[in-house]
From TrEMBL:
UniProt name for this protein: Uncharacterized protein
Organism: Aeromonas salmonicida subsp. pectinolytica 34mel
Domain of life the protein comes from: Bacteria
Length: 70
């Protein structure tokens, strides 16, 4: 199971409003931001792969790739 950007954003909001040490809070939020950024790169890569499958008459594989993103 993959965590979604919305879930990471919600977790970040919860951490922002928590009473944990400010230094730790920034460290955790930076980590979450890196995860969100990586998730976007992964989605872009999978969609590019799907387009390549489509261009090579392998539409079924393209559809399967898109299921990971949508």
């Amino acid at each position: 199971m993959s965590i979604t950007t919305e879930q990471l954003t919600h977790l970040g909001s919860m951490i922002t409003h928590s009473d944990i040490n400010q230094e730790y809070k920034y460290e955790i939020l930076e980590f979450l931001d890196n995860l969100i950024h990586a998730e976007k790169h992964k989605d872009h890569f999978i969609l590019t792969l799907a387009a390549l499958f489509d261009q090579n008459n392998m539409q079924e594989m393209g559809v399967e790739c898109r299921k990971f993103v949508f």
